[in-house]
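Per reviewer request, we include the raw input and output of the structure prediction for the construct analysed in the revised manuscript.
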Amino acid sequence: MPQARNSSAAPQPAPKAGAGAAAANGIPLPWQLAGIGVLLLALAAALLFSGAAGARQVSDPGALVRWGLPVSKAIHNIALATVVGGLIFAVGILPRHLPGHRGKDEEAPEHPAFTRALAVAAAAGAVWTLSAVAVLVFSYADIAGQSVSGDAEFTRSLVYFMTDIETGKAWLAVTIIAAVVTTILFGVRSLAGLACTLVLALVGLVPTALIGHSSSSSDHGGAINSLGLHLVGVSTWVGGIIMLAVLSGILGKASGGKASGGKDATEQTLRRFSSLAGFAFFLVFASGVVNASIRVTTFQELIGSAYGQLILAKATATLLLGAVGLMHRRWVIPQLGRGGKSVRRVLWQLVLVELLVMGATSGLAVALGRSAPPEPTTYAPDASPSFILSGYELPPELTPARMFSEWRFDWIWVTVAVFGAVAYLLGVAKLRRRGDSWPWLRTVVWLLGLAALTYITSGPLAVYGMVLFSIHMVDHMALTMVAPLFLVLGSPVTLALRALPARGEGSRGDGSRGLREWLLVFVHSKFSQLVTHPLFAAANFAGSIVLFYYSDAFGWAMREHVGHELMNLHFLLTGYIFVLTMIGTDPLPRRAPYPMRLLLLLATMGFHAFFGVSIMGGTGLLAADYFGNLGRTWGGSALADQQVGGAVAWGIGEVPTLLVAIGVAVMWSRSDERETRRKDRAAERNNDAELNAYNDMFARLADRDAKLAQDNPGHRPAKQADSDTTLEGR
C-alpha cells in the first residue's frame, strides 16, 4: 500500500539483522526464519535422544521415511498454526480498513496489516496442504514398513490406506480441509466468511486428535479431548506469535502515518492478542498436564523414561513462554505509549525469544508424537467387549451411592464450565467496579447450571449412560432441560454485552470486531433468526429426539467419540434455545406471545409423552449392535432397561417442561402488571386523557341516538350497555 511521504523527514537506516536482537521497528526476516531452524534442530535432537528415528530391526521403511515423517509433521503443524493465527488476527484483532472508513465501504482500501496477515495465511495454507499430503504418504510407508515408491502396488496400497484405515482416512480428511481453507483464503475477504473459514481450519485439528496416542489408552475420551484442547491452544498461541513477528515491521506504520490521520497499531494489537494468549497458555498447560498424566501414570515413568523426560522439557519451555508473555502484559505493553524506541526494541526482542522457544517446543512436541509412551497404545488381546465398543471397561453395578462416586471427566465440557464460570465472574466484577449492579441470583443460577453441566457430562450419568439406556435417557433429559434452565436464567448474553468493551465506536475506534461485535452480529444474523424462531425451536426440541433415536445417528453417537460429543452439544443447544425462547431475558430477534408459548410447551409435553410411551412399548432394541454386545453381567436385560428409559422420558422428562410453563405464566402475569402500571402512570401524566376520550366517545354515541330519535320518532336505537353513562374507573 502506498504510504504518505514526509519530505522533511531524514531517511532512516535499514535495520541490521544481527546479534539476535530485533530492531525497534520490527523483527528482521532472517530472525523470523530462525524459528524454523530452531524447530528442526530441537526435533532432530529429541528424535535422537528418544531413539524414535533409529532403524528398525523388522520392516524398516528407510531413513527417508523415518526422518521425513516427523519433519513433514513439524512443517504441517507450523503451517496450520500460521493459518489459524492469520485468521484470528484478521477476524478479531486487526481492523479491516484504513482509518476513516470503519469498514462501512466494501471498496475502501484494506488495512496493510490485514492484507499481509491474510497473504501469509494463504501461503501457509498451501504449505499446510502439501505437508498434509507428505504426512499421508510417509505415514503409510511407516506403517507398512516400506520405502516410498511410485510403483502400482504402492499406489494401490496407499489408496486402500486412505479409504479404509483410520489413520489414512484422518490424514485424507486433513488434506481436504487444508485444500478447502487455502482456496477460500485466496478469494474471500468478508469477515463473516473468514470467521467460518477459521472454524473450518480448527475442525482440521479433530482428525489429528483422534489418531494420537489415545486410541487404546486407559482413558480413551480423556486422552482425545485433552489432546484436542491442547492443539487448539497451541495453534492459537503459536499462530499468534508468528503473526506478531510477521507484522512487526508494519504495525507501527500500517495505519498510513500521521499524514493520513493514522496511528500506531502496535499497542492495541498487543493488548488484544495478550488476552487471547493468556487464555491459550492456561489451555495449553492444563491440557498438556492432563494428557501427560494419562500417558505417564507414575513418577518413575516421568523421570526414568525418554518419553517422560521430553514431557518435562516441553513443560519447562511452556512455562518459560508463559513468563515471557507475563512480561509483555505487565511491563512492555503499559509502557509502549511512552517508552519510545527502547521499549519497542525490548518488545520485539521478547517476541523473537518467544518465537525461537516456540520453535523448540514444537520440535519437542513432534518428537513426543513419534516416541512410544510408557503406557501401551494397542488393544490387549483379552480386551473386553465393553472396552472395544466404548473405550472403557464396564463400571461396577449401579447403586444409589455410585450415582455420586463414579466420575469420568470429559475435559471439553470441564473446560467449557471453567471458562464459563471465570468469564461470568470477571464480567460481574467489571460491572461492579464500574458502579453498575447485577442481580446476585443470576450469578448463582449460572454457576448452578455449569455445575449441573459438569455432573451431567462427567459424572455418574455420563459413566452409566454409556452402558444403560435408562441412565442415558436421564442424562439426555437433564442435558436438554435441567442445565439449560439454569443457564438461560443467568442471562449470559446480556452480561457480555454490558461488560465487554465496544470497538469501532467514537474517535478511538478502529472498525475491527471484538467479542462484543461478533456477539451482536450473531444475535442479529439470519441463522439466529431461524434457530430462535419459536416454532423452529419447539419443532427442533421435540422432533430431533425421534430423528436421533430412530436412526443410525444414535448408534454412531454411542460408538464414536466425535458422535458422542456432537450428541451432547446438540442436546444442550436444543434445550438452551428452546428455554431461551420461552423464559429467557437475553436479546432475541423475535419473541412469541405468551399464549403461543404455553401452547408450544403443551405440544412439546405431549410429544415427549408420546415418545416415552413408544419406547416403553417397543420390542426392538435401539442401537442393538452396541447395547446388545456390551457384555453387561449385572442389572436387567438390555430391552427391559430400554423400556425403563421410555418411562423416564415419559414421566421425569415432563417435570422441567412443567416448570418452564409455570415460569411462562409468571412472566405473563408480571408483564400484565407492568402494562397496567405503565397505563396508570400515563394517566397520571395526562389527567386520564385516554379515559376521558373513551367516555367522550360514549357521550357522542348517546347524543347521536337522541338526535336520530328526535328526527325520526319511529326509529328505535340499538341497545347499548351503559351508553348513556360515563365510566367512573377501570
